[in-house]
Design goal:
The structure holds two protein chains of two kinds. Chain A is built from no helices and eleven strands. By secondary structure, chain A is mainly β. Chain B is globular, with a radius of gyration of 13 Å. Chain B is mostly beta strands. Helix content of chain B is about 0%, strand content about 50%. Classes of the chains: A mainly beta, B mainly beta.
Amino acid sequence: QVQLVQSGIEMKKPGATVKVSCKASGYKFVDYGISWVRQAPGQGLEWMGWLSPYNGKTDYVQRFQGRVTMTTDTPTSTAYMELRSLTSDDTAVYYCARDWGLIKSGGVVDYWGQGTLVTVSS
Amino acid sequence: IQMTQSPSSLSASVGDRVTITCRASQDIRRDLAWFQQHPGKAPKRLIYGASTLHSGVPSRFSGSGSGTEFTLTISSLQPEDFATYVCQQHHAYPTFGQGTRVEVK
């Protein structure tokens, strides 16, 4: 069955960088994209961007451009999301999700990781 | 594209029929999905393409609509259905509704 397993809780200070991993199994990793979505405490879901494990192409929401980098390690079927210059506003649960967009960003997501809580506090 | 759900919350009993509405700020054709989210858990897809049931989802869930107005219906609410339901469009950069919390009456 499709599974996405994310890395554990992170606590960071303002200005720091966080890197969240997402290990996929149960399907061919390079046949689907990966989207990253975050959810601040008590808030709604916010799509951050997408990447293609097939060709490494990425598509980031403008508000995160310059601060986020999404990558993959195909041999280990793992996707990564790095967010820099953290502020308290970045405190959220970060999710990866399998995306049916492979050549370009689609936003059609089906299976999600369990989420990674990132807390930014001094 | 802004997605607006109504109501923001509702109280219902087991066995009730529940309907949730999602409106898009512009025409999104049928590029809409519905997710269920329990507290502290990841969203689970229920519906895609506005009305297609995701694999393994009980048939008491159904979706309808196109263009700017969509509905999610639970025909007979079960105990495990008390959760938050979220719509998402992927016609443009994906955006989500604010969620509808279904609570025990």
